[in-house]
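Figure caption, in words: inputs first, then the predicted bound structure.
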Amino acid sequence: MSTPHPANRVILVVNAGSSSVKVSVYAVPDSAHDNVDIQPTLAAHGQIEGIGVAPRLMARMADGRVVADERFPVEQISDHDAAFRLIRLTLSVGLRDTPPVAIGHRVVHGGADFADAVRIDDEVIAKLEALVPLAPLHQPHNLTAIRAVRAAVPELLQVACFDTAFHAGHDPLAQLMALPYEYYERGVRRYGFHGLSYAYIARRLHQVAPDLLEGRVVVAHLGNGASLCAMRAGKSVDSTMGLTALDGMPMGTRCGSVDPGAILWLAAQGMDADAIQNMLYGQSGLKGISGVSSDMRALLASNDQRAKLAVDFYAFRAAQEIGKLAVTLGGLDALVFTAGIGANSPEVRARICAHLTGLFGVALDDAANNENCQRVSQDASGVPVLVLPTDEEGMIALSTARILRECGRLGPCP
Ligand code: AMP
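Bound structure (adenosine monophosphate present):
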């Protein structure tokens, strides 16, 4: 892929996390103005990690050319605003300063209000503010990026793309928690996350195996954050994550499902809400069990007994959640693995699938699995198993281009 022609429209995709900002530049072809479904093309990507700790800027064009790889003193990149401006500046050099026509933001929580991507205005920002307590590690940073752009270039079209939106419309059975019903009415319900990833996987399945997409599919998004989604005919019907991105299976540092009584016990020991939150989001999961690392590669390479226990528990819990989602679906026609671990770790896939042989007759093809092939199951497997890398940022670019077009801002180049 090469640098976009200057006549092309350029969209920025911003993914602001707790200590990182990632910015991707996409070129939108002129022909996209009459076709919603033309996928914008990645032109460049930049990111700063370690904001406020040990900032490191990396940027490369889509053809692989590195345009920056530099460490900065912490006081120089002390916040997300500074990080964003520096990435923009760096990428503008490689892109010969083609100004963007829109910015698409990843926003973790859209609550009950947003079932699709939306153009950002004051009312949208106020609604997103109200959801901060439900995604305390992510939502404030998403909003910081939105505000920084609004302050600098108020007329620039900004679009919010939600991790929750793909799951909108779940049956109440999949949304309820057995608390007094008034809380459900007040929005305390299971929303589900990683929806941008699942929406992308649904598109990919439509391209590579449309017959499977029509059936009952479980998608396992196994990255630093991890969840699973039950899809029927390409639509989400259930997810392992809930009101927050803590529920479901254990993750890198997040706990997944725990007995709420354990939280009460911690509080009774004198731990305050902030300390409990820090533990559940940042000190639990693979990191908490192993005491070694939150990184799956490090755990697989370790001889430590607790590292082994953490991986065993991870695989066991993932398989349990697949069984649970198969109940929602009334069966299972395909299993798809994606994200950092799901798409790249034959060992973790094999360990999860070993738990599924008795119930579903899952049989992996070891050679295909070891090579991360698209189909990693044997022909005789009770359920086909696929590996499809995800592209959440590509999904944001697609939604942003659609909204640009709907706003009449994506006409042919003059
Ligand atoms: P993500 O959040 O999707 O970037 O995924 C990050 C996780 O993927 C980390 O736990 C990595 O250790 C893990 N990961 C990436 N590549 C591999 C691999 N080849 N084998 C095992 N885990 C991997």
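The chain has two domains: 9-162+393-406, 210-383.
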